[in-house]
Design brief:
Length: 515
């Protein structure tokens, strides 16, 4: 690119990963017209000019991790926990002594684990597979083989008997005290237990080891960063005090861990996976797995929009861009529901919102180059880190407000910055995005991440764009702060009945009969 570009005509939209190869910043600052220029950053990755103080727990690369569908808490988390247990046995010299391994899943994992892919995930993890690299095509075949032969390759090398009925137990109505997504793994030598570990999948693929304290926490990255923050107020104050954008604050912190070139390259790789997921979703027709027989709609919608872009019922449609946003969100979440490769953003159930809104910026906001994409993901990551550190992104803990609501908040703030928003307007956009998801329940029909999850991502994507635009029509001053709405979300989640928190025992899940 040589500078700000015109909006891509709808008829020329193509679904392949887009890399501009140009990180020069654009000069114009027009609401929804061009990407704003990034403010100057004073040697943000040369941290010698700053006194390095406190650590920040969550990196942008923790929040945006490549994995598989359909659920970050019920698929990716159990897979990581099982893999961690297998590694613990190997590291402790217990692998060869192990004659049996047993996994027990509690709470929401036990209630909806079958529909969320937890069963296969545990098998893959025990065999040493990783969510980022597991073969999504042959993985289900391997899990089926384990069930058929009743033989498991623990940590990928140690073969032992494995009875799926007795050795992988889903406790539908039993929960562990700390978190509804609890798992306990036990290794035996004969009849003697030689290792027992409990883990919690707390959302977004994050897994905590039970340390015996009753309140395990994420261990902070010990790397000192120049601009530490934990709350929205602290993030905003860092930006104001040092005359930085939100993305610049986050970039400087990420550069404390690795070189800036690696940070940018890593984020663009995340974008590539997001874009590839959209490509796959738009090219794959058919029916989603599971008993609901949900028809995949993205491929048909894509074909329809390419034939007649920008029109609805033979008339020019001023909201045509929203149809594309809907398409992109549907594509990602249909891929997720089918167990495809996706980016957790910040969870799998809400993984369509950030890619859809970023696609909107790339296709409809002139000047959205690689630099703008990086800034978008940095802002989204900074906002997601606040939710992860001070609240919850687990549907099993706070309902869907913590998943779709958080993703909408992250996308709204990110879009606000790259279309010209100040740090105050970014914070306002993020607050709006969450405020209008408060109370949203998590009630997956049939325990599948399909109804209402897929459409919720489409609607949440449009809400994020609205929130960003609304914030930029103001000056950043508003009554409800981001921290206040996050606190409200957590309190609402605590008051929400358990049946509305990813158990499939309330809401739509009990009013729609699975076929």
């Amino acid at each position: 690119m040589s500078g700000p570009r015109r909006s891509t005509p709808l008829s020329q939209l193509a679904f392949e990963p887009r890399r501009t190869g140009d990180t020069r910043r654009c000069q114009r600052k027009v609401l929804a017209g061009h990407v704003s220029a990034a403010p100057p950053v004073p040697a943000e990755c040369d941290l010698r000019h700053r006194v390095q103080t406190d650590p920040v727990t969550v990196s942008v690369f923790d929040l945006f991790s490549v994995g598989i569908g359909p659920s970050s808490s019920h698929t990716v988390g159990p897979m990581r926990a099982a893999g961690r247990f297998a590694t613990t046995l190997a590291d402790g010299g217990l692998l060869r002594r192990t004659t049996r391994v047993r996994a027990e899943l509690f709470g929401s994992l036990g209630a909806t684990g079958h529909g969320h892919g937890s069963y296969n995930a545990v098998i893959w993890g025990l065999e040493g597979e990783d969510p980022e690299t597991v073969d999504t095509a042959t993985g289900p075949e391997r899990a089926a083989e384990v069930r058929l032969t009743r033989r498991l390759r623990l940590n990928g090398s140690h073969e032992l008997d494995f009875d799926p009925d007795d050795d992988l137990v889903m406790h539908r109505r039993r929960s562990l005290p700390f978190h509804p997504n609890g798992m306990t793994f036990t290794a035996y030598a004969g009849t003697e237990p030689i290792a027992v570990r409990t883990y919690y999948s707390i959302g977004g693929g994050f897994v905590l080891d039970d340390d015996g304290s009753g309140t395990p926490t994420l261990l902070p990255d010990p790397t000192p960063v120049p601009y530490p923050f934990r709350t929205g107020k602290e993030l905003l104050q860092q930006a104001i005090d040092h005359d930085l954008s939100i993305s610049s604050v986050m970039l400087a912190n990420e550069c404390a861990r690795q070189p800036e070139t690696d940070v940018r390259a890593g984020l663009l790789e995340i974008w590539e996976v997001m874009a590839a997921c959209v490509v796959n979703g738009c090219a794959t027709p058919g029916v989603l797995p599971g008993g609901l027989k949900v028809r995949r709609r993205a491929a048909d919608l894509n074909a329809r929009l390419l034939v007649d872009p920008g029109r609805f019922r033979n008339e020019i449609d001023p909201l045509a861009a929203m149809d594309w946003v809907t398409l992109w969100a549907l594509a990602v979440n249909e891929e997720n529901a089918s167990g495809g490769r996706i980016v957790t953003a910040p969870t799998n159930g809400a993984a369509g919102i950030i890619p859809a809104v970023l696609h909107y910026a790339v296709r409809f906001v002139p000047g959205t180059d690689d630099d703008a994409i990086v800034r978008f993901l940095l802002v989204a990551g900074a906002l997601g880190a606040i939710y992860q550190q001070t609240a919850s992104i687990s549907g099993a803990e706070v309902g869907c407000q913590g998943e779709v609501g958080t993703a909408c908040s992250m996308a709204a703030g990110a879009l606000a910055e790259i279309i010209g928003g100040t740090p105050q307007q970014v914070e306002n956009a993020a607050e709006i995005g969450m405020e209008h998801h408060l109370g949203l329940t998590c009630d997956p029909v049939g325990g599948l991440v399909q109804i209402p999850c897929i459409e919720r991502n489409a609607v949440g994507s449009v809400k994020a764009i609205t929130a960003a635009r609304l914030a930029l029509h103001g000056d950043g001053r508003h009554t409800v702060s981001l921290d206040q709405v996050i606190k409200t979300m957590m309190e609402t989640g605590a008051d929400m009945k358990v049946k509305y928190k990813e158990t499939s025992r309330g809401g739509l899940a009990v009013n729609i009969v699975e076929c």
